[in-house]
Design a protein that fits this description.
membrane, 17 helices, Sterol_Desaturase_Related, 3 domains, Fatty_acid_hydroxylase, 0% strand, mainly alpha, oxidoreductase activity
Length: 309
């Protein structure tokens, strides 16, 4: 809770006029406890889990021929009943595990120094802290994910998440309750190492979940802005991990690809990419040099061949 209640008190405390965002924050948070503000995460997570995957779900169920070419595993389709069951299971886990975990974890957030006071962080400060959070989470998640793919970890815990060999957005948080608790550690480490403002923490939790939904979308859109993020794995990178399935030893990264490259756990994925590139080149060479009459038919068939090789 802020130590001042009015605009005049806040400006006297800071020794300057408040910015417009700071005025909004003061008006909203002045009479609210830090615990209440922290628990906003529950609402944010519920909305993200429920709303963000919806466009992807509509694409999955519509069987739109115009969007099918962007589906990574076009032969695998889920029914509306399957999609609803996935959402229902995720919401059950949310209300019985994720929500209560948020309610009881506030002391740890207070202990590491997440603040709600003024001044608000600058945009540059937020950006740099988020970068740290993503890097720390990605590296830590990589090794925990590899552990979960050992025989015991996979059979006892991680196999639940791999029930979807062609994942959809709703399946991003679909996992065993123990996995949800374990993978909460990497998400907490970044803010513990570089604690910031509550607003930064909200953004971190929201962006991390949106990223997870994106990598489980099952669609690889060439216009996605994430294509411009260096080393970002995306749906194509993580979809291969689910496609291989079982006790896969490929593509463990949650966000970026550098750990998989450094530790050699993306060799199968890179080999497949080279093979697909050769198939694409051979098919295009045939179209250009030998039989122009088959061009339209083969061009329509080629995406299915590439994505299901």
């Amino acid at each position: 809770m802020l130590p001042y209640k009015t605009l005049q008190e806040a400006e006297a405390f800071l020794g300057r006029n408040l910015t417009f965002p700071e005025t909004i924050w003061l008006n909203y948070s002045a009479n609210k406890s830090d615990y209440f503000l922290y628990c906003h995460n529950i609402l944010f997570l519920f909305l993200i889990f429920s709303v963000v995957p919806l466009p992807l779900v509509f694409m999955e169920l519509s069987r739109s021929s115009g969007l099918d070419k962007f589906k990574i595993q076009p032969k695998v389709r889920l029914s509306s009943a399957d999609v609803f069951r996935c959402y229902k299971d995720v919401m059950s886990m949310f209300f019985f595990i994720v929500g209560p975990l948020q309610l009881v974890s506030y002391p740890s957030i207070k202990m590491i120094g997440i603040r709600t006071s003024l001044p608000l962080p600058s945009g540059w400060e937020i950006l740099m802290q988020l970068a740290v959070y993503f890097m720390v989470e990605d590296f830590t998640n990589y090794w925990i994910h590899r552990f979960l793919h050992c025989k015991w970890g996979y059979e006892k815990i991680h196999r639940v998440h791999h029930e979807y060999t062609a994942p959809i957005g709703f399946a991003a948080p679909y996992a065993h309750w123990a996995e949800i608790l374990i993978l909460g550690i990497p998400s907490f480490l970044g803010p513990a190492m570089a604690p910031g403002h509550m607003i930064t923490f909200w953004l971190w939790i929201a962006l991390r979940q949106i990223e997870a939904i994106d990598t489980h979308s099952g669609y690889d859109f060439p216009w996605s802005p994430t294509k411009y993020i260096p080393f970002y794995g995306g749906a194509d990178h993580h979809d291969y991990h689910h496609y291989v399935g079982g006790q896969s030893q490929s593509n463990f990264a949650s966000v970026f690809t550098y750990c998989d490259y450094i530790y050699g756990t993306d060799k199968g994925y890179r080999y497949q990419k080279k093979l697909l590139a050769k198939v694409t080149f051979s098919a295009m060479y045939f179209l250009l040099e030998y039989d122009h009459g088959l061009s339209a038919a083969l061009l329509g068939f080629l995406p299915c061949l590439i994505l299901n090789i």
